[in-house]
Amino acid sequence: MIEVRTLKPEDREDWEPLWDGYNRFYERAVPAQVTERTWALLMDGSKEPHGLAAVRDGRVIGFAHYWYQGTTAALLPKCYLQDLFVLPEARGLRIGEKLIEAVYDAADAHGASEVYWLTQHFNGPGRALYDRVGELTPFIKYRRPGE
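^ that's the sequence the OP posted. Answer follows.
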């Protein structure tokens, strides 16, 4: 049985290897100070981001981090699902879907007007999930050169 719940301080030991795997997958190096700050913010509870854990047999095997942000396009905030990761050996058990549904529930409870996320073109397995639980938009991301 999979339980999806808010991340807790005692989850750090399971969360950090997942976080490292997530960052490796996206080919990014995250300094230790950023990991420490991210965990501190997730644990604060009064700040963002918010964190969810997918737990099986007392072990965190997946996570989702999300933020609320204002928008000029709606009266209500949007919810940005920034990070989603499941242990490779636990994939195929619909854990990612359960985490996304939990973000949907949190966004509904917060009164968010939309839930959205980004992924990279090479994330085929993730995109197969996203095609089931979401709707592909026409937006293309740009950023300042060199960042």
